[in-house]
């Protein structure tokens, strides 16, 4: 399980081919007169693609990414890529708590970079050095530089891999876990499977699952679940195709960078807390950094695997380790009742509804996330 330093490098041949494809992009016309009502606005897409071809500086973006320490390691027979930022040690401060941050879809490790510096070096950002973390940000299996698992992609399986990465590969005896979306599911499973090593779990998008057989949903819970079903009717088209025909849509997105970035930004705009203005949450350079990473690694198709295999996920059992929820501010989780989280978390110590920061909260509101993580984990740092 040797850990090897890693540098992100995209060849000039790939970049030349990318720009040529972008220059040949064909655009559709809008299906609805309302802006973005039928998906990505063609005018915005043209603007974004033009900038990708002629204005975006990938080499500057690549250098900024490589300013973080990247590594790869063989974990359970498959390659895992991760960023590992060790805390700034301050004399007299306690040992930093290791913390693994897990992203979701259509995201990447980039989502977690803004908060990583705040967590690893709080003193440099007006915080207490006693709150420092050793931060590990892996790329999910099949995303960018990490291999797909040999068998099914499940949240439970990723949690086992992350446990091996943190304990056997990196040698941490005890650690915390944070995530949203897929990363939230992985985080829950880390707490459920490994209570001896996991100090606590913290999620944002409230991806809890529960069996209502013995304890029927309360009226408040039923109201929320009905609202979520209604929301999914308008939002879930992307999911249905990736769950049932991922290779069909992947064929288009692997061949068209414009299609690839459209597929990504559709969800960035819908799920971010941006009031319909995508670039309040995601500036063009960050969007195109993520899109270029997906394009250069050819992994948009493999990132769909967790959708195709979704039916193989089992319900999460009751989680006994200390837990926290900082609820994301997005339509899918509006009025999410605390009682749903309490069905899964037996020791829910921190519940926060800041009404700021959407599905990609660590990127959208890094100071808020850093503050909430410090507060939640502060009393959990020692094994007691």
UniProtKB/TrEMBL annotation:
Stated family: Belongs to the peptidase S33 family.
Gene3D superfamilies listed in its UniProt record: alpha/beta hydrolase
Keywords: Aromatic hydrocarbons catabolism, Hydrolase
Protein name: Epoxide hydrolase family protein
EC number: 3.-.-.-
Residue ranges constituting the Epoxide hydrolase N-terminal domain according to the UniProt record: 3-112
GO molecular function: hydrolase activity
Top-level taxon: Bacteria
Keyword hit for Iron-sulfur: no
């Amino acid at each position: 399980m040797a850990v090897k330093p890693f540098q992100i490098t995209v060849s000039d041949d790939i970049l030349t081919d990318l720009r040529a494809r972008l220059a040949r992009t064909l655009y559709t016309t809008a299906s609805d007169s309302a802006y973005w009502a039928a998906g990505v606005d063609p005018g915005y897409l043209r603007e974004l693609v033009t900038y990708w071809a002629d204005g975006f500086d990938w080499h500057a973006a690549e250098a900024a990414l490589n300013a973080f320490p990247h590594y790869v390691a063989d974990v359970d027979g498959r390659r895992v890529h991760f960023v590992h930022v060790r805390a700034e040690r301050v004399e007299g401060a306690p040992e930093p708590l290791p913390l693994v941050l897990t992203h979701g879809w259509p995201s990447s490790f980039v989502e977690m970079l803004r908060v990583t510096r705040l967590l690893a070096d709080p003193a440099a950002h007006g915080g207490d050095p006693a709150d420092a973390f050793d931060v590990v940000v892996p790329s999910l299996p099949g995303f960018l530089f990490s291999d797909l698992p040999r068998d099914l992609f499940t949240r439970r399986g990723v949690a086992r891999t992350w446990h091996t990465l943190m304990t056997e590969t990196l040698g941490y005896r005890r650690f915390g876990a944070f995530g949203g979306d897929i990363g939230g599911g992985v985080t829950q499973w880390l707490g459920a499977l490994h209570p001896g090593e996991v100090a606590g779990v913290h999620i944002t998008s409230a991806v809890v699952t529960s069996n209502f057989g013995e304890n029927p949903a309360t009226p408040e819970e039923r109201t929320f679940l009905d609202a979520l079903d209604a929301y999914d009717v308008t939002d879930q088209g992307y999911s249905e195709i990736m769950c049932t025909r991922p290779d069909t849509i992947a064929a288009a997105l692997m061949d068209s960078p414009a299609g690839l970035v459209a597929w990504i930004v559709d969800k960035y705009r819908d799920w971010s807390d941006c009031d319909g203005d995508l670039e309040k949450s995601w500036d063009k350079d960050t969007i195109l950094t993520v899109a270029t990473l997906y394009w250069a690694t050819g992994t948009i198709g493999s990132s769909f695997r967790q959708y195709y295999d979704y039916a193989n996920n089992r319900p999460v059992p009751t989680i006994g380790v200390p837990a926290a929820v900082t609820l994301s501010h997005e339509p899918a989780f509006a009025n999410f009742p605390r009682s749903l989280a309490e069905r899964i978390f037996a020791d829910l110590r921190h519940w926060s509804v800041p009404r700021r920061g959407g599905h990609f909260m660590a990127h959208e509101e890094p100071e808020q996330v850093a503050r909430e993580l410090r507060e939640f984990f502060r009393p959990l740092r020692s094994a007691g």
